[in-house]
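Our consortium's second objective concerns turning raw sequence data into structural hypotheses that experimental partners can test. To show how far this objective has progressed, the report includes one record in full. It was chosen at random from the queue rather than selected for favorable results. The single chain below, 660 residues long, was entered without modification.
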Amino acid sequence: MSSSSIDQLCVNTIRTLSMDAVQKANSGHPGMPMGMADVAYVLWTKYLKHNPKNPDWSDRDRFILSAGHGSMLIYSLLHLTGYDLSLDELKNFRQMGSKTPGHPEFGLTAGVETTTGPLGQGFATGVGMAMAENHLAARFNKAGHTIVDHYTYAIVSDGDLMEGVSHEAASLAGHLKLGKLIYLYDSNMISIEGSTELAFTEDVSKRFEAYGWHVTEIDGHNHEQIASAIEESQSVKDKPSLVVCKTKIGFGSPNKEGKESSHGSPLGEDEIKLTKEAYGWDPEKKFYIPEEALEVFRNEVVKGAESEAAWDAKFAEYESELAGDAAAFKAWISRDISGLDTALPVFPESERGTASRAASGKVIAEIKDAVPSLFGGSADLSPSTKTDIEGSYSSETPDGRTIHFGVREFGMSAAVNGMALHGGVIPFGATFFVFTDYMRPALRLAALMGAPSIFVMTHDSIGLGEDGPTHQPVEHLASIRAMPNVLVLRPGDANEVSHAWKAAIENTTGPSVLVLTRQNMPTYARTEANAASLVSKGAYIFADSDKETPDAIIIGTGSELHLAVNARAALKEKGVDARVVSMPSWELFKKQTADYRESVLPSSVTKRVSIEAGSTFGWAQWVGQEGKAIGIDTFGESAPYEELYDHFGITTEKIVEALS
């Protein structure tokens, strides 16, 4: 069989597996895998550097199927090239408990680099992966020694390019000149409603050229053009590349090729038979993999082992000549943070205190050398968020550690996810807390994936003052706490900030959100009983009653902790002996033993008050039916923050009134 015939057999194997799996599930998107099978085949078997038997090899190329609705494309490729994904899993597509869910999910299926489905986010996440590669290469590659050298590839769709987050990410990637980023655009001109001309008529090539991308246009079914475009893109070192692949959705289907009917529904048994006949395939065979095709695909196992072995040899040479750098590289890749504890700053007692955003900036400055892989920045707000580290990360200085994301909250957050998934760096992004509204989809995906992204959210309440209700987050704490697998940390003084950062960096099972103030708050003296390290418990006794069982409990977070402390003193004068509990993290507290939770919030004490400058939603679980939650359940106002606290009743007096 000629090479071109073998290639066509391999491509049709991808197509038929995809068609059969969607049909068996009676759910899915067959058209996109059929249309992009040529492009994917050429990339995966001729250019993609990967090792199916070690999907986590650090110098592998990253591949993202941003068009996640076409998930059977990547599942077919993973099975065929020898990843840990059986044919039975393909037959179990979209079924409960399978490794082949409707959209690719990171952590579930070996070889899936990121969860995709919400369009545009795979595109933006890939930009973060390329940024991580670029930064690691700048730090560790030395003359004569290149140990970080891989590409980030993605297949992107019309829908990806319509979504706003892809615009943000494309602009940033072009600005940063990420030459190791290559995206293959499935330009099939079809969306769910019909032709993309219904809503999408811009010149995509010119748009990306304006962003600073290298753009080529090809026939996405011509293997020579596909190969040439990938090689040309690899040769462009100072621009990300977009390869516009003109394809036919549902390729080969006699009645559904080029039509929206092949996009989001099974082809149907009769049409599948006709299509297989058109491919020269036995129409009665389902999930059929010709031996000749499997042999080609499984050669990736051999190639992958050889690629990794060659890298191992290079690294051994690197290690023998640059032992210090090699040790540092291993530490970065393994997320070694052993120096963090001793680097955390301790802040002196101060009645005036400091804003927790300012304390956070000091923490970053103190831990940056102990955690050299810490890498991040803000959405054009570093003077306010206090998140500069050292040196600007740019195309000219890729070893810089301060990222200027620009006013791109969503793109920033997705890129942070990409860096976290790539590994080797501990990434963070920062903005005002109210703008979690702009980054929420990426935060949700981070939580779903268990990506250890860190988000620094300042200006956390009405305490930001005169900017008014558009900038005052009221419902945001409640809404972010409602999201599964997000660690929310709202520290109550500067020393809690230190340990909140520690908790965030140590959290490797999901994203962390540091919620910080604009206004100053006192810094408290600490003893063993109320050590700031107790932040790791989520809640702890900050100031206790003199009685074995307190008369009442006051729970405070963040900038309202000092109001709780003041209320305790005022209540003492009234004969009420209250306990103050600092609760910087609901999530961490919920993870403690029942005995510990009972020791902090004894069930016998039903007289409780919580105080937090945000929505009271959810506080009932901590104050109980007889307790009271002091907060804000309306939007804010524009005024100096001291007036706002009085206006909304976020005061010591309100606590005293509730417990007297």
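The partners drew two points from this record. The domain at 536-659 is CATH 3.40.50.920 (Rossmann fold). The CA atoms of residues 393 and 400 lie 4 Å apart. Both points have been shared with the crystallography group to help prioritize constructs.
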